[in-house]
Amino acid sequence: MLTKRERTRLSILDTAAALASAQGLESLSIGGLATKTGMSKSGLFSHFGSREELQLATVDHAADIFAREVVVPGRSAPRGMARIWALLDGFLDYIERGVFAGGCFFATTSIEFKDRPGPVRDRIGEHVTQWRSYIEHAVEQAQELGELDPEADPRRIGFELNAFVQSAKSQHAFFGDDRAFVDARAAVRDRLESLRAKERLTV
Amino acid sequence: MLTKRERTRLSILDTAAALASAQGLESLSIGGLATKTGMSKSGLFSHFGSREELQLATVDHAADIFAREVVVPGRSAPRGMARIWALLDGFLDYIERGVFAGGCFFATTSIEFKDRPGPVRDRIGEHVTQWRSYIEHAVEQAQELGELDPEADPRRIGFELNAFVQSAKSQHAFFGDDRAFVDARAAVRDRLESLRAKERLTV
DNA sequence: CAAAGAATAGAACGAGCGTGCTCTTTTTGT
DNA sequence: ACAAAAAGAGCACGCTCGTTCTATTCTTTG
Lengths: 203, 203
Fold this sequence. Notes:
Two copies of one chain form a homodimer.
Chain A: H1 4-23, H2 30-37, H3 41-45, H4 51-75, H5 81-96, H6 105-112, H7 119-144, H8 154-175, H9 179-202
Chain A binds a DNA duplex (30 and 30 nucleotides) through residues 3-5, 8, 29-31, 39-47, 49-51.
C-alpha cells in the first residue's frame, strides 16, 4: 500500500496535470493549487520543495497518464498497419474522452516552453520525441511486414500522420469542433490506404 | 505623417508581438515591456489603459503583420492550384524567415487562450478562422477552375494541408528542426498532386 | 518664441507570488 | 495505547505585478 505522502502527492499531481493542460505550467501557482486541493500553501509546497520540482513532477505524471491511456493500448495491437492505426486512433480517442481537462497536456506545455530553456523544457521534449518515435517505429514495422510501401520514408509518413491528429487536437481544443476528429481519422485512413495500395501494385 | 503617439505605439506593439510569439501573451508584463522598449511603466501603460487592451492591440498588430507577410503575397498569385501553393509555401517561408521571434504568434497564443474565455480569446479565434477560410476558399476556386478534383471536400483538404504546415511550425519551434519544412512542403505537394491526378483520370 | 497640450517619468498602492519558519495535528510502528 | 515521526497549518518575508496619481519634460502650434 502507498504511504499517505504518496497518495496525497498523486492526488495533487492529478489536479496539477489537469490544470496545466488547460492553463499551462506557468499558470500553476502554489496557492491556486493549494486552494483547489483543499490544502495550505506550505503543506502542498513541502511535497515538492520548489516550483520547478512541482512542474517536473507534473510533466512526468502527465507522461504516465499518456502512456497508460494511449501508448500501452496502442502497443497491444498486432504489429503493422493495425498498430499504426491503434496508436493514432487511440490518441484521438484520448482527446475525445477528455482525459486531460484542457485537451492535451503536451500540446499546451510544449508550445509554452518552446522558448524557455531549462530542465522543464528538456523533460517535455523527451516525451514528445518519444511519441514521435513510437509512430515512426510502427511505420517501420509495417514496412518490414510488407504491409506498407517500402519506398516510403518512415520519418515523413510519421510526420504526416502525426500532423493530422495533432491538428485535430488543436482545432478541437480551441473551437470545440468535433468534425476535426472525423477529418483526421479520414485523412489518416486515406493516407495509410494510399501507402498500402501502392505496394499492391508493385507486387 | 503619423503623430509621435502613433509611432511610439507601433514600436511598442512590434516588441510586444515579438515577445508574445515566444513567451505568450500572459507573460507580457507591463514592466518587462517597458524595460525592453526603454520606457517607464506608466509611460507605456498610458498608451493602452489596461493590460487587456494591450493584449488586444498586440493581437491585432500581429494579424496586420501576418496579413502583410503571408496573406497579401499569397493572394496575389493566380487563382487555383498556384494560389493554394502560394499561401502554404508563403506560410512556411514566413516561419523560416523568423518574422516573429518565437515562431508563429497565433500558434502560441491560440493554445495559450484556448481555455481563457474573454475578448482576447475571441479576437485570436477570429484571425485563426480567417486563415482557415482563406485556404478553403482557395481550394474551392481551384475546383471551379477544374484544376482540382471536384469530388473532394474543401474543408477536409484545407484541414489536411493546414495540418502539414502547422505541424512543421510546431516541430521547428520546439526542436529547431529544419527537416520539418522539407517534409511539410513534400507532403503538401504530394497531396495536391494526388488531387490533380484523380481529376485527370475522370476527364 | 512662448503658451498649450501631449507624452512620459517617478513614486506609491494593494494583491498575489514563491519560499522559509515554527507550531500543531495526524499517521505509523511497536 | 503510546511514543516517534511524518504531514500539514499558519504566518511572515521580499518580490513583482497592474494600476493610479502627480510632477516633469518634450512637441506642436499660434
